[in-house]
């Protein structure tokens, strides 16, 4: 146990340090400015747990006092300890550990999705490994490509257990665990079931932390390229808010740099016929959700109402809390709303046969791929969304097309479903959905114009947050959770009767969509997520319109097509239902 006030002295490469008792050798090395390589270590800081399983032994250093090699990620310093990180024993120990991992690893680096972004590959280069001295058999497990969202290749698993830490400790889904023993040990599902036979939510956080490509998003780009090259298809694309503050990282920009205009131009250069903004769908979602919340409050309907924009969260409640399925909002996600309107309202307006429209979504999320596959998210036999491409996949497409992203002109979304407000923009960060909905619900409840638009008590990075919003004579009690482990705490409190809310927002990923499983890898760097979130709030701050119900194109869609929020037509196109799923 860490004793906060107890200080001890240790030495790292003869550098004297005073550290707290309970400090790991790895952290002592960081304090001394010494870089100790790691592979299985996963430190998510404020976001979640620390993985100190010491499986890979890549971080070994030499304890001068005992002469032993010790794993720096899990070993605590003691008073008077002398550590050598660059001794011959330590260096050769690391090389041996890494060579053993490489000896059982596929050699398809050139065609691997993690090529040049693989931590195993990077370490091999850093340690100047040019020959594998340990030759022998390799694992031969079947590749699981059963789901539309994630591909699992056990042959690339190095048993770092990062995915197990994420799935069990942070997300509390419990799908992944160590399987088999000895040479054949891998991280996998119970009885080696395919992912689509388990309770996986496809949140993609296992993909985010996997150092190799043992877990990776299932690419939709071959199908998208085929659609773009089919003259008989009208290919429409939409872009989620969190994408525009992260995709620039793949082209040398800083986290949080806003790339909206260049992103639109890149999509046009790729050949998309129409470019819509998912934020329009977010504005529409706000109006429908606010209307639904007000109706529930006035009719003593089931409360709290839970937002339903996050598909991993929807899967989670269907599998883990089926007794609470009366509380999620029936609203589709913004992605599905834009898809539904593209194949109805837009198709009629543009004179395009809905069967000829291919809807592609650019999302920060791996679970959106699974959402697009849900049978209930279709109209007249046509899926609302045909293909989902993650931020990482789109960056690869842009590079594949030899488009110079940095020199692109600033483009603009197509207007019909492309105008947005600041309210829809902040959907991309934790607390943003409920803040946007509160702006509209306040005016629906009170009949008065909202003065201060920022509900700063709803913002932050804490895993679970609560706030009370004054809405006229009524106090609106709001709960917020991001990461599924925190969602579990909140839902169990509701089940026990210990928590009482009117509305709850839940996002499966750390920080919300800005930390989605399809975003550029954040490697547990919370400052990267904070900069992405700050950029979304900045877009909101400078927006001409900051309330979803003030979006003139949203008003036009209701006037021309949907009639009114919560109308029969709106229910048919913009709402859905949920059902209990077997928990495996």
Topology:
Elements: E1 3-12, E2 15-21, H1 25-31, E3 42-43, E4 50-51, E5 60-63, E6 68-71, E7 81-84, H2 88-103, H3 119-126, E8 150-152, H4 162-170, E9 176-179, E10 186-189, H5 205-209, E11 215-217, H6 221-228, E12 234-239, H7 260-270, E13 274-277, H8 278-298, E14 305-306, H9 311-320, H10 334-350, E15 357-363, H11 367-372, E16 378-379, E17 382-383, E18 387-390, H12 391-400, H13 422-425, H14 432-446, E19 464-471, E20 474-482, H15 484-496, E21 503-507, H16 526-542, H17 552-562, H18 568-574
Parallel strand pairs: 1-7, 12-13, 12-15, 14-21, 15-18, 20-21
Antiparallel strand pairs: 1-2, 3-4, 5-6, 5-7, 8-11, 9-10, 16-17, 19-20
Helix pairs in contact: 8-10, 8-14
Order the strands across the largest sheet as they lie in space: 2-1-7-5-6
Helix content: 25-40%
Percent range for β-strand residues: 15-25%
C-alpha Rg, in Å?
A: 25 Å
Structural class label: alpha/beta
What is the CATH fold-level name of the largest domain?
Rossmann fold
Give me the number of helical elements. Answer: 18
The biggest sheet, with number of strands, parallel, antiparallel or mixed sense and barrel status, is:
5 strands, mixed
Structure, briefly:
The protein is an alpha/beta fold and 584 residues long. It contains 18 helices and 21 strands. The chain has helices spanning 25-31, 88-103, 119-126, 162-170, 205-209, 221-228, 260-270, 278-298, 311-320, 334-350, 367-372, 391-400, 422-425, 432-446, 484-496, 526-542, 552-562, 568-574, and strands at residues 3-12, 15-21, 42-43, 50-51, 60-63, 68-71, 81-84, 150-152, 176-179, 186-189, 215-217, 234-239, 274-277, 305-306, 357-363, 378-379, 382-383, 387-390, 464-471, 474-482, 503-507.
């Amino acid at each position: 146990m860490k004793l906060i006030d107890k200080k001890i002295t240790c030495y790292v490469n003869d550098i004297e340090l005073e550290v707290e008792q309970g400090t790991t050798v790895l952290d002592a090395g960081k304090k001394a400015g010494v870089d100790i390589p790691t592979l299985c270590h996963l430190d998510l800081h404020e976001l979640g747990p620390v993985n100190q399983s010491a499986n890979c032994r890549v971080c070994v250093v030499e304890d001068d006092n005992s002469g032993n090699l010790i794993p720096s990620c899990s070993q605590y310093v003691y008073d008077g300890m002398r550590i050598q990180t660059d001794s011959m024993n330590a260096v050769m120990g690391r090389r041996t550990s890494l060579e053993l991992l490489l000896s059982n690893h596929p050699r398809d680096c050139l065609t691997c999705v993690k090529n040049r972004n693989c931590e195993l590959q990077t370490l091999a280069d850093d340690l100047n490994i040019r020959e594998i001295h340990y030759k022998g058999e390799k694992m031969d497990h079947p590749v699981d490509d059963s789901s539309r969202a994630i591909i699992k290749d056990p042959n690339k698993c190095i048993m770092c257990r990062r995915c197990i830490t994420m799935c069990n400790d942070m997300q509390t889904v419990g799908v992944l665990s160590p399987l088999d023993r000895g040479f054949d040990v891998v991280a996998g599902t119970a009885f080696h079931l395919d992912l689509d036979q388990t309770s996986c939510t496809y949140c993609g956080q296992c993909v985010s932390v996997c150092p190799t490509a043992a877990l990776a998003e299932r690419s939709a780009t071959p199908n998208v390229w085929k659609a773009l090259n089919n003259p008989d298809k009208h290919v429409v694309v939409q872009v989620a808010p969190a994408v525009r503050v992260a995709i620039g990282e793949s082209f040398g920009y800083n986290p949080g740099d806003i790339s909206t205009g260049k992103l639109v131009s890149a999509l046009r250069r790729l050949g998309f016929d129409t470019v819509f903004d998912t934020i329009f769908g977010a504005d529409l979602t706000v109006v429908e959700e606010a209307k639904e919340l007000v109706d529930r409050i006035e009719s003593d309907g089931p409360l709290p109402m839970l937002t339903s924009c996050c598909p991993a969260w929807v899967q989670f409640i269907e599998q883990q809390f089926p007794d609470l399925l009366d509380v999620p909002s029936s609203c589709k996600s913004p992605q599905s709303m834009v898809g539904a309107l593209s194949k109805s309202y837009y198709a009629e307006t543009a004179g395009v046969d809905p069967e000829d429209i291919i809807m592609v979504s650019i999302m920060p999320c791996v679970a959106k791929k699974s959402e697009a596959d849900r049978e209930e998210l279709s109209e007249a036999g046509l899926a609302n969304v045909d293909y989902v491409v993650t931020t990482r996949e789109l960056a690869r497409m842009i590079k594949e097309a030899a488009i110079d992203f940095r020199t692109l002109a600033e483009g603009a979304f197509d207007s019909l479903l492309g105008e947005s407000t600041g309210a829809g923009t902040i959907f991309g960060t934790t607390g943003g959905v409920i803040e946007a909905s509160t702006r509209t619900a306040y005016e629906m409840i009170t009949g008065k114009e909202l003065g201060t638009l920022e509900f700063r008590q709803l913002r932050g990075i804490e895993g679970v947050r609560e706030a009370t919003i004054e809405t006229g004579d009524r106090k609106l009690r709001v709960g917020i959770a991001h990461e599924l482990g925190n969602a579990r705490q909140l839902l169990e409190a509701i089940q026990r009767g210990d928590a009482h809310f009117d509305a709850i927002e839940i996002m499966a990923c750390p920080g919300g969509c800005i930390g989605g499983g399809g975003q550029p890898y954040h490697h547990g760097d919370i400052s990267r997520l904070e900069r992405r979130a700050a950029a979304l709030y900045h877009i909101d701050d400078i927006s001409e319109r900051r309330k979803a119900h003030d979006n003139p194109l949203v008003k036009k869609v209701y006037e021309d097509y949907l009639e009114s929020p919560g109308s029969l037509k709106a229910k048919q196109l913009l709402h859905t239902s949920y059902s209990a799923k077997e928990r495996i």
